[in-house]
């Protein structure tokens, strides 16, 4: 059952996996939110845990940074561990001027400068979209909890340090809310394997303004996003 990247045994993952980029955020989520959390993977330091949230069995695992790393884990979780749905819980940089630090964004769709989804669709554009049922669950939970969220497009870039701002300028003009590095790849993998995926993001910095959260806050805060996402999974 073990894969080249995951040593967990058969049945070790729950049907639902939360997938932050940072493996230490995965550890923090397991320690803060899951009862009886058990560490089920440490290969490459990509920590994974399974435990219970208010009686629901849930797993959480780091994906690493960028579409290639995230795609490896997503594919192995869907195909080797029979995971049904993956929810990325990530950080992002705001693009639109009216978005503030710590705002929550639900990525209904994800643009990208990566070639992975064109490779999947014979060279053509693939509309990388969230699973509607998962998206609606989290949006409804946000409404019920009176947690403001923005729902829309993000852009998943290959380069964190881009040589020019052209892509961000065009994304801004086209209403793209934020930039991160995995959602479009995750949605492509989910589509390829007939599985479900959603990306929920907390704004950690603003690409137009000199504003950013510390690395510690990126690892150990984001409580509003975590509670919203986990509560949305309950019946
Ligand atoms: O905080 P995570 O979930 O890693 O997400 C964002 O942070 C990393 C870049 O700093 C990229 O992975 C980007 O998508
Ligand atoms: O990918 C990312 C994540 C956070 N902030 C950015 O500017 N880019």
Automatic annotation (TrEMBL):
Root EC class: transferase
EC number(s) on file: 2.4.2.1
One BP annotation, GO: purine nucleoside catabolic process
Matches recorded under Gene3D superfamilies: Nucleoside phosphorylase domain
Keyword field: Glycosyltransferase, Transferase
Entry protein name: Purine nucleoside phosphorylase DeoD-type
Subunit structure: Homohexamer; trimer of homodimers.
Recorded GO CC terms: cytosol
Active site (catalytic residues): 205 (proton donor)
A Gene Ontology molecular function term of the record: purine-nucleoside phosphorylase activity
Organism: Corallincola holothuriorum
